[in-house]
Amino acid sequence: MSGKTSKSLSATIAEHPFMHGLDAKFIQLVSNKAVQRSYERGEMLFKEGETADKFFLVLQGKVALELARPEKDRLTIETVGDGEVVGWSWMVPPFRWSFDARALKSTQVIALDAELLRENLESNPKDGYNFLLRLLPVVGNRLENTRLQLMDVYGV
Questions:
Q1: What would the CATH number be for the domain defined by 2-154?
Q2: In terms of C-beta distances under 8 Å and separation of at least 24 residues, what long-range contacts does 13-17 make, across chains too?
Q3: What pTM was computed for the model?
Q4: Which end of the chain is more exposed for a tag (fewer CB within 10 A), N or C?
């Protein structure tokens, strides 16, 4: 994994499909601790149980959200690609990842600082509401995909 910053990072964040159209001031505030990162095939963005301290905007690549199973192959819950987001465990205490996230190919993301993001969601209610309206369908889809995968695995 590599990390870098850019003068145009806030512009890149504003152009990301998930963030596009949010208030420019809000984008600037949450960009303050943002970092652009690259992950090579097989590298982990995060592991289940670790502190959930980032929200990932996928710029390019593919990320598998995986569930480790004792003495069995890993179960891929969902694959996320260009223009999508990874990670919502940073929203809910105890702020721990529920799954693993692994790059399936060379992947570029912008990692937003979760604490700064939570602070700005709370202090800017209108922006926070608009952000959560975008995040809730992601959460719902991930929960539905998890349910479908588990039904398939366990034949329910």
A1: 2.60.120.10
A2: 13/57, 13/110, 13/112, 16/57, 16/59, 16/83, 16/110, 17/83, 17/84
A3: 0.87
A4: C
